[in-house]
Amino acid sequence: MKKTTTFSITALFILVATFVELSFQTSQINKFGVYWSPTIWLLGGLLCCFFASFHLPTKETQGTTKQDKASLFIHWFLPAQWMRLVLFWASFLLATLFIGDKLADVFIEHPIDPLLSDVIPSMQLYVKRFLAGEKVYTEMFFPRWSFFPTYLPFMWAPYIPAEIFQIDYRWTAYLFFMLALVFWNRRLLSKSIYFEEALLKMLIPFLMLGYFILYNESTLGFAIELTAVSYYLMLAFSLGSKRLWVIAIPIICCLLSRYAFSFWLPVYVLILWAEYGFKRAFQVGFLVVVGLVLFYVIPFLSQDWQLLSKGAEAYNNAILGQWKIQTWQAPGALPHHLNQGLSYSIFFYLEFPELAVTERLKLNKIVHLAVSLGSSLFILAAYFFMRKKWPNFNFKLFSLVSLKLYLVIFYSLLYVPFSYLYQLPLFLSIPIIYETVILNPSRKTTS
């Protein structure tokens, strides 16, 4: 048996595409104007999915294991496998502490103040009402405005312990993100890749966070999107699992938090049906419905059956407010969040001056809905085409890539393009990077 190495240049291109996507949310954000900047950001996400698709024709094979993982050179210094594992997890811990130390400075520089950002203060109101036994979903009041709450339970429930122990909510988001990475790094260590590649890949999420701290720290200082990101990382982790609860729980978490994947979800259920049969797809759907009933319908919706319609109305009013020039902006300026170079929503605002702002927003919504549905149908058609074309089709990786693809397209036309929201599709590159091997040590019999 002689060990050979296969090299994947497409995996390197995935890294480059991810860096482009990252740059145009941080150091290069809106650098080339409100049309070219979102185009380059979108291309980065699409190219990440495109290069990942080259890995779809072949199912993942079980190669070297944790016990005999290959190494390029570290085995010269750390000959025992346990030594390398200690190095891996020690590096993970040090990186966690290092980024945590930098985040502490960010949190100090961005105090929790509703006049600066109402995201975290809103979460605090949800949690305080819940802990006090009050009705959570009633009008919320701040010094200069009020609004009807629209966040679903899993957006604010994770911060209940933080409120009880008086810990900054932003640490909860970071903790959730780290816990999701622990799952993914355990899977990474089980893959048939060189130890050095696993070590470098483990550092990528920390490098991405570091880039945000350097160039766009407000997305980490004023928001806690990493909690929603962690839900989606666990959803990505569950894709293709044969355990019902492993599949259902992340879906419930995402549906009751950042439910942007709603049009993709039916496609995924159909894929589960095709792969595992109707019974499995039905069981997943049943568990998800039970979760929604237990965690939302009974404790909250049953208190006010008009909650969804009230929330939708409040959300629409909030959107319209962001399509107007804010009081603190200079006369003649563009609406602040539309002008960040992340979404094509600015196109509908600028190119249809003859329409009222409400009509421009409505047009954006129609196009957004049509494109989201269209991308879901495209994903479904692509699945059946590839499944028929390639006998060893990797449907688990396809599900992951399709989730990233859908969300990139979904967010490219988002009509409330808060910059922190774009961390969600970006960080889904992490599992794609983990799942696509750059240097693959394989064993083949040679004569």
Short description:
The chain is mainly alpha-helical.
Reading side by side through the largest sheet, how are the strands ordered? Answer: 1-4
- Low-pLDDT regions: 62-67, 443-447
Q: Could you describe the largest sheet, including whether it forms a barrel? A: 2 strands, antiparallel
Helix content: 55-70%
The helix-and-strand class reads: mainly alpha
**Overall number of strands:** 4
Percentage of β-strand residues: under 5%
Tally of alpha and pi helices: 19
What form results from the Cα inertia axes? Answer: globular
How many domains in all? 1
Strand/helix succession: EHHHHEEHHHHHHHHHHHHHHHE
Mean pLDDT: 92
Task: Give short descriptive properties of this protein.
single chain, 447 residues, mainly alpha, two-stranded antiparallel sheet, two-stranded antiparallel ribbon, 19 helices, 62% helix, globular
